[in-house]
Task: inverse folding
């Protein structure tokens, strides 16, 4: 389809047609007032280009498209057979890690990125952390890993080239939730996690926390140092094995190089460090405008703890409190939301929907709907047969999307989530474009109960794992 | 759209019999049919719902509160009991038995099995209640003499001890993956004069009802009819279960259940209650290098393996999910393995409809995992799976896929090995059956497999051939269900 020139006389549309990364270089106001019908045409043009660009460069895509007999894209729906299931990025055999076959793991990843990884020397790698470090040193890759289903991490081969887009998308998201524009305002940043790491939240905050804060000194995390991917993987496996009564079968301890003293120190320090983190907020930032990002359970539990100490309204009302990742099935008193807002001193705490595979997050509006930025082309697939549902009205089904901001990996994904997507009914908040209902559920949870550590549960799993290691070492 | 169909196989339309009204699942309490329906439940897989009376209201009818009432069972000889069960079996034909028909219809909705496979099982039910089969079961597993009389045993100290096997007051928490579990439970429990309470599973809520209602139609006041209760309640209903699982009501719990369900039941254990678990199991096969001796042999081996994988649509614990093949792991060996994988795939497709069909159970998670590994042939090559017909995943190195415990719907993983020890090391106490080819290899590795936890070893292709007259999961359930009582007679000197 040729886009009619008159529609594009408005400069901003041709701007987007030139380069999809321009989507994250304009204001939220601009983005949410775009005409959906024109956005779809722009998306289709970019989708065609993305496919033509990636087809010869990403081996896994080439294999899939060839097997499907697809050589060109004519409509948005044409892309759906080529979206990667969320399992593709963890389709490596777990034993490659156990046996330290990092060369094979690199070869596996090589098929999922435009970068040439055949030249990478992994001979000195013994752990996942070392391998990821090695990839970063010898290529532009900035791999993001998931929090891990049953301990098997997915590795998404993001790279340096996507970081700028991610930052801009992240700032747009923060602005919707908080009204703060990170490009112009520096805020002290608080994150009750580790300082660095390669899991999504750690990557985002590790990267953009100091930028948003204006300096390393104003980027405050609860724990110093680095959240290890190896540790997270093992923690997930322990948690999964516990749920199935197979703990005795695990022989993973050998793989861990931590000694008992270090573990004890980590455990002993944990609550102390968390205390210090909140104490610092209270002592030095009371009444100030800050940026605080954490999972819902972390934010709520800290607020309740603070209440007990007689504290409330600790920050300025224009502070940015950002969260996501769900509740991890934790149940709090009915008034948790009001109490949490009152403790931090803000009118509202809003969250976003996103995943390892999306650039940025989808912000929730005042009506608790997640709005989808135009650089993501959303699809709802029939959960039974995978066919895309019509892009009109509202549909419930499996969420899939194409992310136009990827530069080095294929942007098409089929998620494991059931969503209700509104394609054409406009949200009462006035934002144009598609949006999702608040209720989002994993199909695997619907089917077989929850063996996934959701983002909100990562810290729990991590802590349990430290306990488990200590018990094992004491035997 | 081919790939998407393979991710989410389409449900074939003839698998589902849609009936708008909810199914009625009565409580059957010792010959009495209770139909005061007040609670509604959803079946597994399909859209079927069923309604039941509130078990809380009928607890005292469900349990036997008067142990002396069980004397009536001892006024019957084993021969008379087996006659009754045999006659019951003769009434279990889909043509004439409306209850069984209802069980079949509901099963088509709630079971993981497809209609042709399910029909074949219902057609064979009478075999499991055949008098000779039951007699063999009792004789070989318990010893009929012990059920009939006090058997004197002279001890070395000069005393004579009289031993007799009494039935216990037993509750059976049964599995519903195959209707045979309901039939086998009635056969084992009633034949040993147990007082029998059956807790129905949500994926087969009607087979046991059909059997007991048939008993009532035959002889409503027969002591066996009077010693059986059947009910559905949602497993985990603590308020009801706390009242039920007490030593004054029951002596044995025979539980077929997963980890969570067994863990749950343990909360009710106390002195006086014995728990017998028949856990869910996974099964495997081991194929020796002899399979590759010639083309014909390889094809036969593939056909035999297909039966172990595909029978009962891979819904049973005896079904093979991972097959270790001593093809070798060098390029030559992998080539051989992939050839076997292709043969196995075609053999699966050729299984007759009453044995195995394409799956009706849609498992998007498994299919997503399979599609995840499809994009890279370095580690796994997949034969088939474009629709819901099942597939063979051929590992290209000596390890199964990471999701091997999730394999179902006729999906099997072939794993090439150099050394049989790799296969032996892979089994554990979760492994029930191992099918082996050739026979000679079975003898060689048998003991080692058992030491690693395996409970049943069969010739490749014969895993689905089961019997209730054998040990199960490395225990003797029939002996465990009995109470072994001593009468010690000593003469004072």
Result:
């Amino acid at each position: 389809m040729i886009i009619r020139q008159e529609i594009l006389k408005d400069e901003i549309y041709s701007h987007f047609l030139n380069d999809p990364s321009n989507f994250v270089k304009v204001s939220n106001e601009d983005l949410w007032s775009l005409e959906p019908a024109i956005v779809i045409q722009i998306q289709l043009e970019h989708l065609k280009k993305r496919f033509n660009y990636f087809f010869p460069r990403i081996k896994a895509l080439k294999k899939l498209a060839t097997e499907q007999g697809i050589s060109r894209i004519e409509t948005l729906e044409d892309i759906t057979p080529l979206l990667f299931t969320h399992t593709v990025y963890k389709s490596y055999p777990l034993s490659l890690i156990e046996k330290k076959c990092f060369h094979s793991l690199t070869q596996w990843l090589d098929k999922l990125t435009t970068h040439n990884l055949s030249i990478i020397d992994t001979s000195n790698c013994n752990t996942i952390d070392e391998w990821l470090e090695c990839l970063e040193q010898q290529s532009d890759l900035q791999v993001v890993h998931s929090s891990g289903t049953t301990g098997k991490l997915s590795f998404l081969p993001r790279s340096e080239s996507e970081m700028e887009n991610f930052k801009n998308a992240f700032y747009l998201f923060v602005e919707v939730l908080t009204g703060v524009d990170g490009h112009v305002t520096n805020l002290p940043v608080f994150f009750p996690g580790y300082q660095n790491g390669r899991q999504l939240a750690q990557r985002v905050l590790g990267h953009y926390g100091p930028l948003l804060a204006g300096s390393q000194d104003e980027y405050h995390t609860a724990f110093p140092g680095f959240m290890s991917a190896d540790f997270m993987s093992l923690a997930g496996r322990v948690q999964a094995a516990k749920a199935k009564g197979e703990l005795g079968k695990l022989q993973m301890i050998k793989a861990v190089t931590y000694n008992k003293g270090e573990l004890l120190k980590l455990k002993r320090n944990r609550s102390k460090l968390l205390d210090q983190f909140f104490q610092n907020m209270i002592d030095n930032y009371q009444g100030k405008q800050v940026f605080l990002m954490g999972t819902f359970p972390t934010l709520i539990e800290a607020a309740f703890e603070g209440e007990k100490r007689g504290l409330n309204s600790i920050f300025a009302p224009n502070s940015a409190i950002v969260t996501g990742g769900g509740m991890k099935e934790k149940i709090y008193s009915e008034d948790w939301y009001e109490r949490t807002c009152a403790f931090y001193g803000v009118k509202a705490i809003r969250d976003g929907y996103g995943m390892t595979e999306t650039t940025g997050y989808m912000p929730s509006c005042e009506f608790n709907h997640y709005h989808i930025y135009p650089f993501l082309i959303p699809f709802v697939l029939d959960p039974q047969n995978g066919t895309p549902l019509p892009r009109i009205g509202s549909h419930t089904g499996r969420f899939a999307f194409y992310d136009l901001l990827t530069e080095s990996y294929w942007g098409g994904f089929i998620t494991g989530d059931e969503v209700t997507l509104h394609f054409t009914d406009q949200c009462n908040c006035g934002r144009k474009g598609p949006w999702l209902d608040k209720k989002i559920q994993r199909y695997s949870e619907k089917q077989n109960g929850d063996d996934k550590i959701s983002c909100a549960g990562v810290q729990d799993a991590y802590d349990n794992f430290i306990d488990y290691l200590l018990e094992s070492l004491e035997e | 759209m081919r790939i998407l169909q393979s991710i989410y196989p389409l449900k074939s339309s003839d698998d589902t019999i849609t009936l708008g009204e909810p199914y009625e699942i009565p409580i059957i309490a010792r010959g009495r049919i209770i139909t005061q329906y007040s609670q509604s439940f959803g079946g597994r897989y399909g859209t079927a719902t069923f309604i039941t009376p509130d078990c809380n209201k009928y607890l005292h009818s469900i349990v036997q509160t008067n142990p002396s009432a069980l004397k009536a069972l001892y006024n019957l000889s084993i021969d008379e009991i087996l006659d009754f069960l045999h006659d019951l079996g003769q009434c279990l034909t889909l043509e004439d038995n409306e209850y069984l028909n209802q069980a079949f219809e509901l099963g088509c909705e709630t079971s993981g099995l497809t209609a042709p496979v399910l029909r074949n099982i219902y057609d064979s039910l009478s075999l499991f209640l055949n008098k000779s089969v039951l007699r063999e079961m009792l004789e070989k597993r318990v010893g009929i003499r012990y059920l009939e009389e006090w058997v004197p045993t002279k001890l070395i100290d000069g005393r004579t001890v009289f031993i007799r096997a009494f039935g216990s007051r037993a509750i059976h928490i049964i599995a519903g993956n195959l209707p045979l579990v309901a039939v086998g439970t009635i056969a084992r429990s009633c034949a040993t004069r147990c007082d029998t309470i059956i807790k129905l599973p949500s994926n087969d809520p009607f087979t046991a009802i059909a059997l007991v209602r048939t008993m009532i139609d035959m002889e409503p006041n027969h002591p066996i009819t009077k010693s059986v209760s059947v009910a559905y309640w949602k497993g985990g209903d603590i308020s009801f279960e706390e009242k039920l699982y007490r030593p004054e009501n029951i002596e044995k719990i025979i539980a077929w259940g997963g980890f969570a369900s067994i863990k749950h039941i343990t909360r009710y254990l106390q002195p006086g209650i014995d728990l017998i678990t028949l856990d869910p199991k996974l099964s495997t096969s081991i194929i020796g290098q002899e399979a590759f001796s010639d083309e014909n042999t390889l094809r036969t081996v593939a056909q035999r393996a297909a039966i172990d994988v595909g029978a009962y649509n891979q819904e049973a614990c005896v079904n093979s999910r991972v097959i270790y093949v001593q093809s070798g792991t060098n390029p030559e060996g992998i080539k051989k393995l992939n050839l076997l994988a292709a043969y196995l795939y075609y053999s699966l497709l050729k299984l007759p409809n009453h044995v195995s069909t394409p799956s009706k159970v849609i498992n998007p998670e498994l299919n997503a995992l399979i599609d995840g590994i499809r994009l890279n042939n370095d580690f796994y090559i997949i034969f088939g799976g474009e629709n819901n017909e099942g597939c063979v995943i051929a590992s290209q190195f000596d390890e199964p896929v990471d999701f091997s415990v999730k394999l179902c719907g006729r999906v099997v993983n072939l794993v090439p090995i150099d050394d049989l020890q790799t296969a032996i090391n892979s089994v554990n106490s979760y492994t029930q059956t191992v099918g082996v080819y050739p026979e000679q290899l079975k003898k060689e590795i048998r003991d080692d497999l058992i030491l690693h936890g395996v409970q049943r070893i069969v010739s490749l292709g014969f895993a689905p051939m089961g019997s209730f007259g054998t040990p199960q999961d490395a225990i003797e359930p029939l002996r465990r269900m009995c109470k072994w009582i001593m009468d010690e007679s000593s003469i004072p000197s």
